[in-house]
Specification:
single chain, 269 residues, alpha+beta, 2 domains, two-stranded parallel ribbon, 8% strand, globular
Length: 269
């Protein structure tokens, strides 16, 4: 599992890196099936678009193929379902969230030769389409719709407050390690909501291989160990967070947890 740190994510497609991450979190991830399905869909797209000569029209046909014919869509009923962060599940269900759908769009789009890149906008993952000689345009991978600068600014204000200004740095191309790191955080959050603590613990352990002393990851690990009745380890993690972040409001709450755990018999696992 911890071999994730040895992967060169910038040397692979984002969706391939996501599969590596998914497998590290859940060994039951269907990596081989996913790779075969990706290859099958690439072949299908090549055949479907073979008659298109104009590149921009060809791209529009690709979007229709992805969202209408293949049926990929944002999961409006269960946005925070962890299945939306596992590529094999997204391929099976044809549902996902911006980052997982965006990773698929990037993969297919690049295989088909389109000038597309990923952007980690503050509110969500975006696809940037950069036609030669034209200003970049942006696509919301959740629904395949183009997003105007006005809409992006409105999203930013909703995220950061009324004084937020849209800057070039908000729309710069994202590197794969950055996206994978955020993907890992999304997976952990979803798994915690679902009380799948063993898989959530894998997420935290993976995150700590990149930043070993991150007090917030160690705090989260303490919470997970507490749910797994590993009270002594949870106690140690909570104490570490309190020492490192004494002014954080969570520290006061955790002091009560430390007192309670200190009075609880140690359960070994």
């Amino acid at each position: 599992m911890l071999g994730l740190v040895d992967e060169d994510f910038d040397a692979m497609e984002l969706v391939e890196g996501a599969l590596v991450l998914n497998k590290a979190v859940n060994p039951e991830t269907q990596v081989s099936w996913s790779e075969a399905e990706l290859a099958r869909l690439v072949r299908e797209a090549e055949l479907a678009l073979a008659h298109e000569r104009d590149e921009q029209q060809r791209f529009e046909s690709f979007l229709r193929l992805f969202y209408s014919e293949w049926g990929f869509e944002g999961d409006q009923n269960a946005y925070f379902d962890s299945a939306n962060g596992f590529i094999d599940k997204v391929l099976e269900r044809r549902k996902g969230i911006p980052v997982s759908l965006g990773a698929l769009l990037l993969y297919f789009g690049r295989k088909l030769g389109f000038p597309i890149q990923g952007v980690t906008f503050p509110t969500q993952f975006l696809i940037k389409l950069d036609w030669y000689g034209e200003k970049p345009v942006y696509i919301n991978p959740y629904n395949g719709e183009y997003v105007s600068q006005h809409t992006l600014h409105a999203w930013l204000i909703g995220h950061s407050g009324p004084l937020a200004k849209l800057k070039a740095e908000h729309l710069k191309t994202a590197d794969n390690p950055t996206v994978i790191g955020r993907w890992l955080a999304l997976l952990k959050s979803a798994l915690l909501r679902e009380e799948r603590y063993t898989l959530a613990l894998r997420c935290t352990d993976l995150a700590l291989t990149f930043v070993p002393d991150d007090p917030y990851e160690i705090r989260d690990r303490g919470f997970i160990y507490q749910q797994l009745d590993c009270h002594q380890v949870a106690l140690s993690d909570f104490q570490y967070f309190i020492e490192q972040c004494p002014d954080d409001p969570a520290s006061e709450l955790l002091k009560n947890q430390v007192t309670a755990l200190s009075e609880t018999s140690v359960t070994l696992h």
